[in-house]
Amino acid sequence: MALYRKYRPATFAEVVGQEHVTEPLSIALEAGRINHAYLFSGPRGCGKTSSARILARSLNCVQGPTATPCGVCDSCLALAPNAPGSIDVVELDAASHGGVDDTRELRDRAFYAPAQSRYRVFIVDEAHMVTTAGFNALLKIVEEPPEHLIFIFATTEPEKVLPTIRSRTHHYPFRLLPPKTMRALIGRICEQEGVVVDDAVYPLVIRAGGGSPRDTLSVLDQLVAGAEGGHVTYQRALGLLGATDLALIDDAVDALAAGDAAALFGAVESVIDAGHDPRRFATDLLERFRDLILLQAVPDAASRGVVDAPEDVLERMRDQATRIGPATLTRYAEVVQAGLGEMRGATAPRLLLEVVCARLLLPSASDTESALLQRVERIETRLDMSIPAGSTPAEPVEQPVRFTRPSAAPKPASKPEPAAAKPEHEPEPQPEARPEPRPKPTPEPKPAPEPARASETPSAPGELNAAAVRSMWSTVRDKVRQRSRTTEVMLAGATVRAIEDNTLVLTHESAPLAKRLCEQRNADVIAEALKDALGVNWRVRCEAGSPAPATAGPPHPKPEQPVPEPDSARRDEEEHMLAEAVRDEPAARRDPEEAALELLQNELGARRIDGG
């Protein structure tokens, strides 16, 4: 005999996992509050029909109505599990007898008094399959039944039952069993059957049963029937249930955690070589991501029964959960879920599985929010590993190449000599107006390692500081160049000074260019580049000054100041630098009046008259 029939409950106390239904029914039976119609709804295999038979048995027991039938009277013996049944309890399968003729026959038989029991009970299984005409034929008798008549409707889709019928019943919703309850049930049955089952087999059986006690016991029955020597092994269960080996799932997750494409595609190859269905592998991989997300969010998920796995598997999953961030796991689950939809009905599921794996390895291929969060997690992980709290890098960070103005470039050695021979024939100039002689042409000295970095406030692990931004400044400039070449060229003389209240402070050696970089358009370009490269949402401010930040040590003697260049020369150099940037860019939009005035001046020789 099948296990689900052999262990069918005989009383409400034996029904597992449906206490929210059995307890109110038991109280109503003990109090004698009997209704003329009941509606039992819920997923398949969760005990609706069995509970309907128990209710009929409790109503017709000689000591009843009672929640604990005696089990020895004729009615209890006739209505016991696997017994022949009673003439006063009629079961109708509406899936095959739901027409109007069947319900009319049932209605005519309902008026007869019970032959040997207290109540005449009609159990209508799959009640949602009754046609509208059939429900209309039953409507009158369900509204005003005889005293001896009780209807029990069982259905998986209560919303399809005629509302006028449903409103006249007591509705009891059944539910699927949680894994922890199901584990206790099948463990007790295996012990009674004298069968040894590996611990890793229970999650496979529970997952295959989908929370339905009947379906789960059917799966267990198949494994027990094929067990050699009364021992159900993990490998035998894998072959019969078509599940994916946990070792392959671990290999795939470990490869994703390490970013190892070769190992990931090797795991896919092993899945195909073992004969596993790619769709099933994707489903099991999605289940693993779900377990890892829960283990991160709920550390005691295993003890609560939310995650069901053997202890050795739980240890591996906890280790994997510490190596992959929650945003990354969430994106992995989204990608695999989307891939499962594409695999449905596909002629080449392996190809689609490999495409899904490629998407998992390449977060930059997507601009979704989950992909951006994954990039931020990777940056934070690198910073945690490279910049520990309270310390700074041992070596100074390499500064980006700064733009050198043409006038500041070293002059040939032969040019200063004519100026040295002039004082013999010219009057002596005033000392305060005399320009200081230029030093001999030597290469511009490189700035010494900045001591201010050693005094920067140490940042917490995962937070970006100025030193970290300097190390990635070349990447930021690449992102700026993709958006605006003009802005990128203006950044040539800018350096990162500090980060103040989510604002990146830049220092530029040219005051006009610093002002230009502070304009909204250029600041927005730099902010978007920072968000793309570093995953931060900062404002940008540029100040004019020395590229080297102020030091915290004692003041140094001021270096000899060079002769200030004329404003006209500085403007010429800035215009020359900007002209190189805008060479490949379309001209900015000009004021129509300015364009018209320029045209008149160039073509007709007009002269602008300024109003006083």
TrEMBL record:
Domain spans labelled AAA+ ATPase: 34-177
Keyword field contains Zinc: yes
GO cellular component, one term: DNA polymerase III complex
GO biological process per UniProt: DNA-templated DNA replication
Subunit structure, as described in the record: DNA polymerase III contains a core (composed of alpha, epsilon and theta chains) that associates with a tau subunit. This core dimerizes to form the POLIII' complex. PolIII' associates with the gamma complex (composed of gamma, delta, delta', psi and chi chains) and with the beta chain to form the complete DNA polymerase III complex.
Annotated InterPro entries: AAA+_ATPase (IPR003593), DNA_pol3_clamp-load_cplx_C (IPR008921), DNA_pol_III_gamma-3 (IPR022754), DNA_pol_III_sug/sutau_N (IPR012763), DNA_Rep/Repair_Clamp_Loader (IPR050238), HLD_clamp_pol_III_gamma_tau (IPR045085), P-loop_NTPase (IPR027417)
Originating species: Mycobacterium bouchedurhonense
Compositionally biased spans, kind Low complexity: 406-421
Documented EC number(s): 2.7.7.7
Role, per record: DNA polymerase III is a complex, multichain enzyme responsible for most of the replicative synthesis in bacteria. This DNA polymerase also exhibits 3' to 5' exonuclease activity.
Keywords: ATP-binding, DNA replication, DNA-directed DNA polymerase, Metal-binding, Nucleotide-binding, Nucleotidyltransferase, Transferase, Zinc
Protein name: DNA polymerase III subunit gamma/tau
Top EC group: transferase
Substrates-to-products reaction catalysed: DNA(n) + a 2'-deoxyribonucleoside 5'-triphosphate = DNA(n+1) + diphosphate
GO MF terms, alphabetically ordered: ATP binding; DNA binding; DNA-directed DNA polymerase activity; metal ion binding
Comp. bias intervals (Basic and acidic residues): 422-443, 567-593
Zinc is among the record's keywords: yes
Pfam families: DNA_pol3_delta2 (PF13177), DNA_pol3_gamma3 (PF12169)
Record-stated family: Belongs to the DnaX/STICHEL family.
